[in-house]
């Protein structure tokens, strides 16, 4: 492994300054569960590692009337152990609770999962369907990017030179809404998704019709996919098997997978259709309480 400097700033400005100085030869250290593996494998040759765990804004986790704020350094277990988050954002808990194993979850978090930009990232689709926004700081100031636009390719993001993900902001879900996420893996746990699906639905006051919906797909394209046509197809429709099956078929069409050692194109597309139907039904159950 290439020798590097370890830096532990206490402010966002200090972290941004180090990242800007070293460019691609510096990386933030949140959980380190991806960074250290890639550094040891010489995927990245680093001159500096910037530990963000001492920066208060990046370790903040709060639930309020406006929504949920997740600092980029907050580990997974703090998210799924929070009873308010579990009650209001079960779809996010679905995803964050299956990232790695318990040991990984004590260090790794949604911020790192998002910045790693793996198409199979289990934390990303739940954030997309919740209309989450990434707050970014850099040498030119602060900006916000919708989570569905954050990843630009496998292991590539919108982050520019010196920029740092500070937090993920999730709006408060409307009444009569529910969300769910699942994936298919060959093993029981600690595996990479062959396909994954996240769904968010809002029902009318009767609970019998869809008012809005978002569907996102994991591990079936170069980035997580917001299947807009599939989600839009539910709007104004009754909650029934026919409506759900039609949306699931559209989600299947939105998938653009490849064949690799974990699965074929046809298998992944079929999985997307099946999992979408299941997650719509589970989201509806949660929306109905």
From TrEMBL:
- Pfam families given for it? CO_deh_flav_C, FAD_binding_5
Q: Which SUPFAM superfamilies match?
A: CO dehydrogenase flavoprotein C-terminal domain-like, FAD-binding/transporter-associated domain-like
One GO molecular function term of this record is:
oxidoreductase activity
Top-level taxonomic group:
Bacteria
Give the keywords, sorted.
FAD, Flavoprotein, Oxidoreductase
Domain annotation FAD-binding PCMH-type: ranges: 1-175
> Which SMART domains does this one have?
CO_deh_flav_C
Q: Which PROSITE patterns match?
A: FAD_PCMH
Cited Gene3D superfamilies: 3.30.465.10, CO dehydrogenase flavoprotein, C-terminal domain, Uridine Diphospho-n-acetylenolpyruvylglucosamine Reductase, domain 2
Transmembrane regions listed in the UniProt entry: none
Q: What PANTHER family does its record include? A: XANTHINE DEHYDROGENASE SUBUNIT C-RELATED
The protein's name in its UniProt record: Xanthine dehydrogenase family protein subunit M
Q: Which organism is it from?
A: Candidatus Lucifugimonas marina
Taxonomic path? Bacteria, Bacillati, Chloroflexota, Dehalococcoidia, SAR202 cluster
């Amino acid at each position: 492994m290439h020798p590097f400097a370890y830096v532990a700033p206490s402010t966002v400005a200090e972290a941004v300054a180090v990242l800007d100085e070293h460019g691609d030869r510096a990386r933030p250290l949140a959980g380190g569960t991806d960074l250290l593996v890639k550094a040891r494998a010489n995927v990245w040759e680093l001159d500096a590692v910037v530990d963000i765990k001492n920066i208060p804004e990046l370790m903040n986790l709060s639930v309020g009337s406006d929504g949920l704020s997740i600092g980029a350094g907050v580990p997974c277990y703090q998210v799924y152990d929070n009873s308010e988050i579990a009650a209001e954002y079960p779809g996010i808990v679905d995803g964050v609770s299956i990232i790695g194993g318990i040991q990984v979850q004590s260090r790794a978090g949604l911020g790192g999962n998002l910045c790693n930009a793996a198409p199979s990232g289990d934390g990303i689709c739940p954030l997309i369907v919740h209309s989450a926004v990434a707050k970014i700081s850099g040498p030119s100031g602060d900006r916000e990017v919708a989570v569905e636009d954050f990843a630009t390719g496998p292991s590539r993001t919108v982050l520019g030179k010196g920029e740092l993900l500070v937090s993920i902001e999730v709006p408060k879900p409307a009444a009569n809404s529910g969300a769910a996420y699942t994936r298919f893996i060959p093993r029981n746990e600690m595996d990479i998704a062959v396909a994954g699906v996240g769904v968010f639905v809002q029902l009318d006051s009767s609970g019998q019709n869809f008012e809005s919906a978002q569907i996102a797909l994991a591990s079936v394209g170069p980035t997580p996919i917001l299947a807009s046509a599939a989600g839009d197809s539910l709007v104004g429709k009754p909650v029934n098997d026919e409506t759900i099956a039609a949306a699931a078929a559209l989600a299947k069409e939105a998938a653009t997978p490849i064949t690799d050692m974990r699965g074929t194109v046809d298998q992944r597309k079929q999985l997307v259709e099946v999992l979408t139907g299941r997650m719509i039904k589970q989201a509806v159950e949660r929306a109905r309480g």
